[in-house]
## 1
Amino acid sequence: MVNKHSQSFFGQSTGLTLVSSSKTEPFIFLKCIKKKPDGSWEKPSLGEGKTIKCNLDEIVMILEVLNRNKDSWSSFHNFKDVKTQISFKWEDAAKQKLLIYIGKYSKMLNYAQTEIFRMLLKHIIQEKIEFATIPNLNPIKKPTESSKDHTEKNKVPNSTELPSVKETVENNENEVSNINGVIEGETEKALLIQFEDNKEVWIPKSVIRSDYNSINEITQNFMIDNWILKKNNIFKN
C-alpha cells in the first residue's frame, strides 16, 4: 500500500489529473488543464488551469455515479469567495462514457478510463477511511524551561517555517511537454522516436498522452510526460 496516488487522463485538448497527496489526508485533488491556441498546455505552476479539493463526502457521491447507482451528481466549491460548479454525469442511458465538468473545463472519459477512475477512487477512499479518520491521541505537551533551553541551543540558524497546506497541488513529474519527432519503430508497448536532435529513444506508449500516426518518416507532435524526457536527456528546441 502506497502513500500517494496520481493518475492523468489526457485527450486532444483537455487533461484531468486525480491526485491523492497522502492517505492520511481526508481529501483528493482534481486538476484540470487545457491546450492553448498556440498548441502549448496550461501550466499550474504559472497559476493556469483549475484545481479543486474534494472531501470524503464528495468522493462518496462521485463514486455513486461511477458505480452507476446515480445518473448524475453536482456540487459547488467555494474557495476565497470564488464558486466553482462541478458535475459528474453519464452521456446517455448506456452509461459507457462519463462527462466531467469543473468550472469552464470539461472532460469525457471512455469506458476504460471511467473504470480506472472508479477503481482508483474506490481504493483511495478505503485507504482514507482507514488512515485519515484516526484521531490524534497524543496531546502536545508544553515544554519545560529546561527543554526550551535545549531546543533553543539546538535550533538551526536561519531556519524557515514550513509552508501551510494550500488548496492547490503541484506534481511536476506529471507535467507534459509537446515535442516533435519521427516514429522509427514500434512494438506493442513502445515507440522508437527520433527527436529533432537526431537522438533515437524508445518511449513507452503509456507516457504518450496524444494521438499519433504510426506511419514512419513523418514529423509529428507528441505530448509526452516530462519525467521520461528528462530521464533520457531529451529537451525541447
Note: Helices lie at 56-66, 111-131, 145-153, 226-231.
## 2
Amino acid sequence: MNSASQTLETSDGLEVRLAESAEEVAAAQALRYRVFYDEMGARPTEAMRRRGTDFDDFDAVCDHLLVIDRGRGAGVVGTYRLMRRHVGEAFGRFYSACEYDIGNILANGGRFMELGRSCVDGRYRNGATMKKLWDGIAAYIHVHGVDLMFGCASLPGTDPDQLASHLSYLYHHHLAPESLRPRALPHRYVEMARLGRDDINPRRALAALPPLIKGYLRLGGFVGDGAVIDHQFNTTDVCVMVKTDLVTAKYRAHYDRSIRED
C-alpha cells in the first residue's frame, strides 16, 4: 500500500483501508473511546471525556487501519494503529517503550512496525471483521516489507494472580528468543512465571486466552519477559512479537490465487 487512499480489501459491505482524513482518524478515536472507556472501564483523562475520544501524541504520526461498514452505513467498526520503524525513530519514541525495554528489537528487529490500539465495535466482534483487519495488516506488511511486528497486548484485569495461568503459559511456552526479547521496565516489571511449567494445562491455557493474543500465537508469536499493569486501561499487558513470514506467505498465496481466478 503506497498511499493512505488505497483500499486493501472490500467484500460483504466491509471495507478495510487506511484512514484518508482527519475525520476518519477521529471516527477511529471515537470507536476506541466507546470500547476502551465506556465498555471496558478504562479511565479517560478529562480532555478525553470532554471530546468522547481516545487520543494521544502517537495518533498524529501513525497509520490508522480501518474497517468500515459501507453496507449498513455504520461507519468505522474496527481499527488498528500502525507505526513503521522509520516513523517511530523520526518521532523519537515508540508506545511500547513506556512499558518495556525494546532495545533488542531496535538492534535486531530489522524492518519492524509497532501496532496497537486494536478494537472492534461490539456488534461486529466476529470472525468476518477480524479477518478484514488481518487482511489489511497482511497487505500493509507485504507492501512495506515488514519483517517483524510487535506491540503491547492486553489481558483483562489488574490482578496478576487472577491471570496466573495465562501469564505462566505465555512465559513457559512462548517466551521470545533472547536476541529479540523485550523486558518490562524495572519499576513496572511483574513476574509472569507464577506457576510452574508442569502445573499448566497448555491446551486449556491457550483456549482461555483473549482471541487477539491467540491470533498472534497461531502466527508463531512470542512474548517478552515480564507483564505490566496498566491501571488506566484496567489491563495487564504483555509485549507480543510476530515475525511476519507466515503472514506474508498467507497473503501472497491469497493474492496469487486471486490473480489466477481473474
Note: The CA atoms of residues 35 and 77 lie 11 Å apart.
## 3
Amino acid sequence: MKTILLVDDHKVVRDGLKFYFEDNAAYSIKGKAGNGEEALLFLKNDSFDLVITDLSMPKMDGIKLMEEIKTAFPQQKVLALTMLGETAHIKKMIELGVNGYLLKSSGQDEILQAIETIFKGENYFSSEVTNAIISELAGKKVQPSHSLLIDTELSRREKEVLALIVEEMSNKEIADKLFISQRTVDAHKRNLLQKTGSKNIAGLVVYAVENGLVDVNLR
C-alpha cells in the first residue's frame, strides 16, 4: 500500500481528497497538513510515498515546501494540486523537480491517473498545464481556464445554492430551504458546474472555498 501526505490549508479540501481514497486498497492517507511547515514536520518524523500539495497556503506555500523537500528529501515524490494555473508557478515547480501538476478542477479519475503515473516512475501534467506551457512557448497570451476565474458571474440564487452545497445539504434539503423544486436545484447545479468549469460537486466546493464565495468555518 502506498502512503500519501495531503497538504492543503482548507480542511474541506483535505477531507474531500481523503474521500477519494477511502475505498482504494492501493493507497492510504497517512497524514494531513494545513501548510508547508506542518508538512515538513510530518516528513521529518515519518516517510511517505507521495506528497500531494496545494501551492497557495499561509506560513509556507507549496513552492517553498517544494524547495525544502528537494533539499532535505530529494527522493520524495510530489504532486502539485492547485488552483494556480499561471505558467510562472508551473515552470517554477517543474524547475524544482515536481513529479506532477494538476488543477483542482481535475476529476477523481484524473487525480488517480496522475498518482498511478507517478508511481510508475513517470511525470504527469494535466492538459491545461501542458497547454499553458505550449502557449507561452508559442508566444501566445495564456488565458486561465474558466474554472480559475474569480469573477465568474454567478446569480444570487446560484450563490445561495452553492453555499448550501458546501454545507453538504441534499437536493431536497436545498429545495426546502430555498422554497424551490428539486428540479430547479438540479438546474442550478448544472449551471454552477458549467460556469465554474468544475467536473463534480467536490470541484464546486473547492471552487467556492478557494475563491471566497462562501463564508464557511473550515478549521
Note: The chain has a mean pLDDT of 83.
